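Render this sequence as a predicted structure.
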Amino acid sequence: MTATSYVQGLAGRLETRLTLPSTPKVGQVAVVCHPHPLFGGTMDNKVITTLIRAFKDANIPVVSFNFRGVGASEGVHDHANGEVDDVLAVIEWSLAQTQATELYLAGFSFGSYVAASAVSRLSPLPVHLRQLFLIAPPVHHYPMAGLSFPVNTLIVQGDADEVVPADDVFAWAAQQHLHLVRFEGCSHFFHGRLPELRQSILDNLV
């Protein structure tokens, strides 16, 4: 079951979608963050819908949403600053909707930077971050070196990425001592590899 709602954020209402598995796990919820709004990124992106499918297949309720200024979400793009406020508002709403106490947080490209940036601001919320998933994180473009990452962070990166320099991601992940899944010959948008991406998320859930 999937239902659309509107969550109040600091810049206005955010278009939000809750997908419930037929037998949802009690106490858990996943929130996923879409790629760059100025380059066509929305919660309907194929990588995002693949992440949603993976969490649903694991019986975890999953919430997707459009950042400010995208789709029916109000506000204007804020270059990954206000977008952190957006995801925090959606997480808080997600906890209230599902009574979850454990959070899976995931993002693709731009969304992975926003998700990672939100980690340090989760402490006021009554939730434990169970796992962070960063898909093709744009380490070359955003200051990810200054962020802190939970032990159970998983990086997924294609080595033929035409948007994010794969070698930069590999070096950064090694420096941070983060677990990385490398997709050989895979592009930024995981063309032809989405079933593998879904399986990789399922295989690495903790």
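Summary. The chain has one domain: 2-204. The chain has a mean pLDDT of 97.
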